[in-house]
Task: structure prediction
Amino acid sequence: RSQARLVIVTFSAMPPRAKKRRKVYMGPDQAYVIPKQTKSNRAARAKRAAELINLSQTSGDGDNSSRCYDLDDSDQSSDSNEDEISNQSSDSNEDEITSGVTSDEQATSDGDNESDDTSEHEELFHDSCTSEDGLASGDTSGSSETGETASSGGGESEQGDPDLTTSGEDESDFKIFEELCSGPPIPGQDSTRGHVLLLILAYVVSAGLSWTQTEGLLRLVNTLFGVFVAPKSKFLFRKVWKQSQQGMVDFHFFCDRCSKPLMVCKTPLQDKKARCSQCKTLYGAEEMVSNGTFFIIFNLRKQCHDLVKNCRKALWDNLEKIAQRSRDIFTDLADGDLVNQARQQFGCAMEDLTASFSTDGSPVFKSSKNSMWPIHVMLNELPPILRWKNLLLGGIWFGKKKPVMSLFLDGFVEQFRRIGAIKWVCHKNGRALESKVYAVCCIADAPARAAVLNRKQFNGYYGCLWCYHKGTLVDGTLKYPYSSSVTERTHRGVLQDVKAAVMTGTTKHGMYGPSPIARLQGFDLVWGIVPDYMHCVLEGVAKQLTELWFTSTGAPFYIGNQMAAVDCRLAMIRPPNLFARATRSVRERALWKAKEWRYWMVYYAMPCLHSILPHHYLAHFTHLCQAVFLLLQKSVHRDDIQAAEGLLARFLQQVSALYGQGAETSNMHLLMHLPKSVMQLGPLWASSMFPFESANGALLRLVTAAKGVPLQVAERWAMKHALARFGEMTNLPANFDQLFRMFLNIQNDSEDGVLGVPQEVSLTAAVHSLLECHFGQVPTLERHLRTRVVGFEIHSREYTRPKKTCTQFVKMRDGTYCEIQAIYKTVRTGEIFLVCKSLILEDFGTGSVKYLHKCIVPPNEENLVLFSSDQIECICVFIELEDESYLCDMPNFYEKE
Result:
């Protein structure tokens, strides 16, 4: 203890000049001076690196050996992490970018990317040294890829017009592939190495193989052939789309401390650094990738060009249909008043296009808080099914926190504005077309909508995006009591609110400040945002009411004690084969997907709750079901919108009286905005989140490891893009083409016609009389159990194989509802006729629902009628319960599974 005191006294008595020197930080305006020792160390390291490179070039690897870079290399020293090895002189060591300004020294290259003797496609099959990371891999040893320019303008590196020709960044990839496909055939085969490579690429993409599994597949193929018909390693295999990936991906880096943008650059990322203009922190690109302080923006111009080129026939045909449609009928998103007004405002030609975009977070791992936020883009003028299958990827944000939307959307908006005019050729007349692309619609759930618009969420005052309803506090929670006199927002009003919020530093009518999407030309900040019915209606109101019915013990609408009876009815339902999921117990409703909530609300709930839920509550619920059905139709007339508006008003007026003020949630309030949203942007199905949620799931399936998730997704997306390009330009042999289509689940356009082998024909007296009455003399017939009509498979009552589905009830064009008894095909003409039983229908009898009917199937062979297969209008949902049967119309067939 005394020694300790002595030490303290001695330390305090030390003269000032003997104290330990402290670090002195730079002042705000003080210039940074590199110490001489640091310059000397850097020069020494550069000299050693040059010696090592010269040594490797003379060690027998030749000019075709590749430099290996790894963004996650843990064996590098701390010095090499701070100051990357460079071949530049010591005078140009200060490679920095301050506030996103490009340093000229980063644009200088150390050498030319050339090889002497071996062609590039030979190198693809025989080279042995490449990088583990596809994003950072270099070329041959004769080149230094540190010359890639980092740019604050998005790293735009395309030269010329990429609409008519492929950009120079990925031209070499396709040139190599063309040489492989046109090269000599494999011994004993009529196929080339390019064909084999395409099949392997298709299988890797479809099966989602990891790189280890891919390497095993490559070795297996080469071993079976006995020669190198495929790249010998995964590294060489990933070189196939390397240049294409560099042209597709931009890295956007930002400061971890103050969230300021730093720089935008492409791969490779070695020797690229940036200094934050606010906190003066110096970052290296590889360091920021490791820390996750970056996001990725994809080249939308290139993706749009390729999509329009590949789908030009379907696109032009649909553009002609859109131009001929009535303005009083809304058949798709492109028919909306908002889209037509935007076209008129900018003087758009028929070939000009509009786009919708969406962003939403998806958890990547169950044991981690990390989530991925992609931005998807959809071309609205493509036919619905085609555009849902061909969404473009605009960007990816990955991390434990939600994205900084001001940064993320700013990068996306800048990239979208670079799309410009897409050049393509009409397949009918060969006319050269130029299509401009305008963003008109944003589709997102409630939290994402608030983040995108930089405003309060639904649980804050003025949380509604479409009107100035302030909201009322009920038991500590904000609610939205129904009011028919709420003022709607306008685009100009939102801009004024944003300006007021910026000037005062406080919120104004829920707005925090400006949003980057306001810079999208022609975008409406009110009705350009969709109140998505998937979240608002299905997972919102329908789920909320169902929870109230089964959990509100003691309430007059409580039916939780009859849950077993409801489950029993659900188990009896056999939906059509268009439905992806069979019915599940109400007890498992917490696990129901949005599609199951759609089935429940539109089809199952009313029959299952009939005589169980009190009459006036069920009648109230039918107002919502009928209104949503009208807005979900294949074609919505303005009269349907007015009818739906009245039904929703009646529904909302009674919510408080039936369920209390606590039930007037934001989702309930959004119901009043659905009719106008349909008028602005088409039917509810055309602007729902379903295709985007499906695309999010597809992106998650691209992740095969826990490390470097956004890099994996970026490379796998570039790989899929390269596969599409390779497949488009390659004529495969017949056996290879069949396998290629099987891998990618490409189905030929199914022609209408009978399915399966013919059955024995035995006509009853009633059927014989029916056919004789129609034909005069019964022709030679084939009897079948199934047939395909308008792309949908239907079957007769005789087809007993399916146990959980029922697709034998249809509606004819003349309004007749039928059950198909038998399917016949005439041998001479090939016409298909259906022997049907006409059904007896009655109204449901409760509330406002018109599409649900009580159904009576006549016994024996009564009410037999004969129809041609082309007279079918739609398939119906037949629900047979213990004492009653029901028949439901389907609003549209776009939301099929």
About this structure: Residues 566 and 608 are 6 Å apart (CA to CA). Residues 36-57 form the longest helix (22 residues).
